[in-house]
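Q: Could you write out the predicted structure for this multi-component system? I'm mainly interested in how the pieces pack against one another.
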Amino acid sequence: MKTYAEAMDALGDPTRRRIFDRLAEGPASVGALADGMPVSRPAVSQHLRVLKDAGLVSDRQVGTRRVYAVDPAGVVALREYWDRFWSRAMDGFRVAAEEHASSRESGMQIKESSDGEGS
Amino acid sequence: MKTYAEAMDALGDPTRRRIFDRLAEGPASVGALADGMPVSRPAVSQHLRVLKDAGLVSDRQVGTRRVYAVDPAGVVALREYWDRFWSRAMDGFRVAAEEHASSRESGMQIKESSDGEGS
DNA sequence: CCTCTGCGTAAGTCTTCACTTACCGTAAGC
DNA sequence: GCTTACGGTAAGTGAAGACTTACGCAGAGG
């Protein structure tokens, strides 16, 4: 299974996010992607390779051109990961709020600066 | 605005993802986070700073300790960005499929290659 | 007072990686 | 056959950043 980690690493780069953003609006060839980008065409090629290895895009050959498009499978996997993460993060936040309240309640040594009470 | 880009960059690092994952299960102090991590405590501090600048975590002082927790605001912003991205990506995929079909129809040469994984 | 704990910060090192130019293979057109 | 588009790959370079150790500062407690 393509790890979500690879996808997150891939989208951690601004240029790759820009390329992926562009592909999200429709498939495009490498040259078309390189136009309107501040980097060279080989750079775009290398970024596309990373995105492809991460399972985020796929490519097909059309004549002499190579057309790239978003790979729905990778996007779905990433979205599922993010959904799990989302719920866990919300749980964690709830735990944080409860711990904050209970520790205050039980008289633990929490001298929150000189702020005193958090309203 | 700029938050989601910063958040994506922040989560592009494996160590920061690990820290954020840990915080998603509940708040923790810097020392507690550093324990069970393969990196030193200052490294964790620096990662926490990046996560905090990205709006993904918040901190409060408890005595001599500093307790970090996920910041729901940042998580919400990132999720909204992802939702928009998700729908755009799906649109792009539909466009790709349609273009693919039409080009096949017109008898063009097409060679597919996504990620070679036979069964 | 002094000490000890907990954490942030400074300074430096070293690895990663984004980008470049140059080159080579492949598909279409003459 | 040759030539011209298009794009992947190799090799090299420079900068970003992840990590370390050493140090400084604030709070809790004897």
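A: Regarding packing and overall arrangement: The longest helix of chain B spans residues 72-105.
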